[in-house]
Every structure is written in structure tokens, then in C-alpha cells.
């Protein structure tokens, strides 16, 4: 199930933040509201589940097993959609407020 590029397809370059910049100034755990930490931990677990489903698909495909990739893709998409919904800015704000943290009145740059 390889991907074919057509003359009309365009490739969007991935923008990555170097790990070194993420790790150089990590926020102390005490500075992150407990509700937000719980939300992040829960959604990371969902992403791990999605990754596990995709790993199973890759292994099955490697050994030429009879699988229904449509079902696997659907389950994975649902897991990822749940994470996207949970990490919506309104849910993140709710998690922060539920932990009793104060929110700044700065501009909202999240969608």
C-alpha cells in the first residue's frame, strides 16, 4: 500500500522544534496546573494507544497477514480525533480553571 505522488501533489515541509530547545528550559512541574498535567497525561496515553494500533498494522502488513486496514485506520482516526478534541483550547482552559490556577488576560493565540 505505497503512496504514489501525482504531478499535482505538493509536499509540505515539516516544521520541527529541536528537542534541545524544548529541554533547555523546561517548565517546573509545580508551575503546570494539576488539571492540565492530568489532561496531558490522559491524552498522551490515547496517542500511545493509537501508535500501538498502527504498530500492529505495520507488523501484520510485514508478514502479509489478512487484515482489514480500513478498520484499523478507522480506530486509529477515532483515537486521534478524541485527543484533538480533548486538547481543544476550551478544554485546556477548563482543565486549568478546574485546578484553581489563574489564567492570564493575554491574547489568545490558540484555535
Account of the protein in words:
Helix 2 (34-62) packs antiparallel against helix 3 (69-86). The chain is built from 4 helices and no strands. The chain is elongated. It has a domain at 31-98. Helix content is 57%, strand content 0%. The model is unreliable at 1-13 (pLDDT under 50). The protein has 111 residues and is an all-alpha fold. The longest helix has 29 residues, at 34-62.
Range of strand content: under 5%
**Total helical elements:** 4
Number of strands: 0
Order of helices and strands, N to C?
Answer: HHHH
Largest sheet: none
Helix content: 55-70%
Helix-strand makeup class = mainly alpha
Flag low-confidence runs: 1-13
Radius of gyration: 19 Å
Topology:
Blueprint: H1 19-24, H2 34-62, H3 69-86, H4 89-98
Helix pairs in contact: 2-3, 2-4
Could you list some keywords that capture this structure?
single chain, 111 residues, mainly alpha, 4 helices, disordered N terminus
Summarize the structure.
This protein is an all-alpha fold and 111 residues long.
Amino acid at each position: 500500500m505505497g503512496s504514489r505522488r501525482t504531478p499535482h501533489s505538493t509536499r509540505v515541509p515539516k516544521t520541527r522544534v529541536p528537542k534541545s530547545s524544548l529541554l533547555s528550559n523546561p517548565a517546573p512541574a509545580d508551575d503546570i496546573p494539576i488539571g492540565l498535567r492530568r489532561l496531558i497525561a490522559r491524552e498522551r496515553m490515547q496517542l500511545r494507544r493509537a501508535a500501538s494500533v498502527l504498530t500492529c498494522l505495520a507488523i501484520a502488513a510485514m508478514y502479509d497477514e489478512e487484515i482489514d486496514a480500513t478498520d484499523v485506520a478507522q480506530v486509529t482516526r477515532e483515537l486521534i480525533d478524541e485527543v484533538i478534541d480533548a486538547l481543544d483550547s476550551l478544554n485546556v482552559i477548563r482543565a486549568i480553571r478546574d485546578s484553581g490556577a489563574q489564567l492570564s488576560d493575554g491574547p489568545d493565540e490558540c484555535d
